[in-house]
């Protein structure tokens, strides 16, 4: 299993750089970043996963764990009719709303705080439900802050709930997706999915050079058994 303390160090390094609202540049576009929110400027994962994703143009898209809103806002810009973005971290919800305004897609976006699907009482069913997850395993009893929770999932408890609950939020024929990296415990996640009568199927992947060596970023579909 990947050494989760490496992810906690990456979180602390990234978090320590941001004391107030700031701008970051991603592929030539300027985005707002708030303190305590996962920064796509400090991880190659967000842009790599964005590159693997096809949005349901004209349809409804849900992003779980939206962070600064890079993917949810991109869904709005790509032509999704309705985009919902949710995050456990209240600062991330505010950050996504700020970027929705900044990029002119606030009219088609709804940003809510909640643990996975908790804040979605008024939501429609979605064509695509997506989570670029905190897919590094950490011990269940670990005491971590909200920024670290963007990197690691203690005991994979949230992943198990995602595998249990996500299908309830898609239209018939809709897709549940999850974006993982090679730092994730793939065998453990496949087992947790199977326990919820789901399996994980690779849709696409990309290899990115990182200081630790090549990292594989992978888009998977969660499909009922
Ligand atoms: C790896 S970051 C991805 C952020 C953003 N989507 C991006 O691509 O830059 C994972 C995100 O999931 C959120 N998250 C972690 N656990 C969650 C949960 N149980 N419910 C909702 N969001 C969660 C974190 O706060 C974080 O914003």
TrEMBL record:
Gene3D superfamilies: Vaccinia Virus protein VP39 (3.40.50.150). Pfam families: PrmA. The lineage of its organism: Bacteria, Bacillati, Actinomycetota, Actinomycetes, Kitasatosporales. CDD domains: AdoMet_MTases. InterPro entries: SAM-dependent_MTases_sf. This is Uncharacterized protein.
């Amino acid at each position: 299993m990947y050494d989760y303390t490496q992810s906690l160090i990456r979180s602390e390094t990234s978090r320590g750089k941001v004391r107030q609202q700031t701008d970051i540049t991603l592929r030539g576009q300027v985005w707002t970043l708030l303190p305590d929110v996962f920064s796509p400027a400090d991880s190659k994962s967000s842009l790599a996963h964005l590159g693997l994703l096809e949005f349901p143009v004209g349809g409804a898209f849900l992003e779980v764990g939206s962070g600064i809103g890079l993917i949810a806002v991109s869904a709005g810009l790509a032509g999704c009719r309705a985009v919902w973005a949710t995050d456990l971290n209240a600062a991330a919800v505010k950050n996504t709303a700020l970027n929705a305004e900044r990029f002119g897609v606030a009219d088609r976006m709804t940003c809510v705080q909640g643990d996975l699907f908790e804040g979605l009482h008024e939501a429609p069913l979605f064509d695509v439900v997506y989570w670029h997850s905190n897919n590094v395993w950490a011990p269940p009893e670990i005491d971590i802050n909200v920024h670290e929770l963007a990197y690691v999932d203690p005991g994979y408890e949230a992943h198990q709930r995602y595998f249990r609950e996500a299908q309830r939020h898609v239209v018939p024929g809709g897709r549940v997706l999850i974006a993982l990296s090679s730092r994730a415990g793939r065998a453990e996640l496949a087992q947790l999915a199977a326990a919820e009568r789901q399996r994980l199927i690779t849709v696409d992947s990309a290899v990115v050079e990182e200081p630790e060596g090549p990292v594989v970023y992978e888009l998977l579909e969660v499909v009922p058994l």
